[in-house]
Amino acid sequence: MENLFVDKVVLITGAASGFGALLAKSLAQRGCKLVLGDLNLDGCQTVAQTLADQGTQVVYQHCDVTDESACEDLVKLAVDSFGRLDMACNNAGMSTAIRPLIEMTEKDFDLNFAVNTKGVFFGMKYQIQQMLTQGSGIILNVASMAGLGAAPKLAPYCAAKHAVVGLTKTAAVEYGRKNIRCNAICPYFSPTPLIADTPFEDDDSPFAQASPMKRLGQPQEIVNTMVSLLSPENSYLNGQTLAVDGGILAM
Questions:
Q1: 45, 87, 157, 174 — which has fewest CB within 10 A?
Q2: Per-residue pLDDT reduced to its tens digit, 152-175
């Protein structure tokens, strides 16, 4: 079967580690040209250099997704380097301290919305503008199970990820007729740097045991689903928020 990923230009934010770095590796293996951005420039450079050494065409730059101009510049890097932008994954995200809602601060909310929501919005804004000039494009936003239901002691994160789901659905409806598809993945806890040193990070935790599969999803399992959502073969998949949760929503 033809590899429909070959020579596709893919932009990934939060590419220095976690899902972003694994997605970059998985897409490089499929022949994509990569445009990587991250607040952690050294980490992003390391990922890019490793892939370049393996023969991947890849460019990268510092990208603070809370800065609208940085998100615009990352799209510009894609076009300047490769002439187009076929796919984009808005993956950069963060969370603040775990504590009850009544102990959360305005700063907690501002930071979560700046990175997790506005960062996705800024990315989509310029990605879609470019895709409209081409007549096609695919966008994948990384939301969370916290975007589909409650997340006790993570209220700002939960609210921000719900907003990502709303942005995803809205873009899908606005631009589907322009041949631009937008979907979101909603993973359950997975052992990435985002949850390092938290109560969520291992299979013995109550959070892992709450899953019907009695374990967390491994990062590569999440990324495998991300690749599927980005695949040009899934050409009628639009406006979906796919839970990758080991069956929690089925209960």
A1: 174
A2: 999 999 999 999 999 999 999 999
